[in-house]
Amino acid sequence: MFDAHRHFGSSMQENALYATSSSDEWDVLSSLKDPALGGVGALADKPLPEINDLERILKAHPSLQIAEVGLDRRFPDIERQEVFLKDTLTLGFELGRSVSLHCVHEQGRMLSALHSLQPDLPPLIWHGYTGSWETAQEAAKLGVILSYGRKLFLSKLAREGARLVTIPYALETDFEQGDYTQMLWAQVKAFSSLSGCTREELIRNNDEIRTILTHNTATR
């Protein structure tokens, strides 16, 4: 089963999107072997790289996706974050790469940024989504896949139950350490109970999401 988001770590061989927000880890992720999938990105907890540096590594490694980039109110210079986000979304669209979105307390600004770039958006997945149902619906209208992780079960969004699977969605572990296999299947079981979907349906959905994220056409 495809895992829509897990972290850079010592063992990176699973069928998963391995994401990083640090340019220091880009080179390692560029060398992953199938079924592992590398995603390179950057967040503003460190100085953001130049967009040309991101373009360079993506062009050198056609299997790389973009994961993760976004907006985070905890980090400095939200205006610079938004510029980098929009430049990255444009780059993803031009190179045919999916983008994993990171958003903390800036959902409105995120939606505005996405609206401003329509229709030239790459395939998008909103990592670890726990926002409102209304924002989820608005994001879905923009073609965004909502990715649900462990924090979903502690959020108000979990009250939506079966409605969570009426819009494009994926499951992710956001794994960093521990027993990966146990965590993955425990989450599948919990989401199955919450949504009413069978384990087989959830597996099939996530595998279809992998295809959406990785089978894109460059526009330049």
Please, could you describe this protein's structure?
The structure is a single chain. The protein contains seven helices and eight strands, in the order E-E-H-E-H-E-H-E-H-E-H-E-E-H-H. With 220 residues, it is α/β, with parallel strands linked by helices. The longest helix has 18 residues. It has an eight-stranded parallel sheet, sandwiched between helices. Helix 2 packs parallel to helix 3 and helix 3 packs across helix 4. Helices cover 38% and strands 18% of the residues.
Cα-atom radius of gyration: 16 Å
Gross geometry: globular
Q: What is the string of helix and strand elements?
A: EEHEHEHEHEHEEHH
> Which residues form runs of ≥5 with pLDDT under 50?
none
Strands ordered across the widest β-sheet: 1-2-3-4-5-6-7-8
Distance between the termini: 32 Å
The class by helix and strand makeup works out as alpha/beta
Helix content: 25-40%
Oligomer: single chain
Helix-strand layout with pairing:
Elements lengths: L2 E5 L8 E5 L5 H4 L7 E4 L10 H10 L4 E8 L5 H18 L3 E6 L2 H11 L6 E3 L6 H9 L2 E5 L20 E3 L8 H16 L3 H16 L6
Parallel strand pairs: 1-2, 2-3, 3-4, 4-5, 5-6, 6-7, 7-8
Q: Which key features would you list for this structure?
A:
220 residues, eight-stranded parallel β-sheet, globular, 7 helices, alpha/beta, 38% helix
Summarize the structure.
With 220 residues, this protein is α/β, with parallel strands linked by helices.
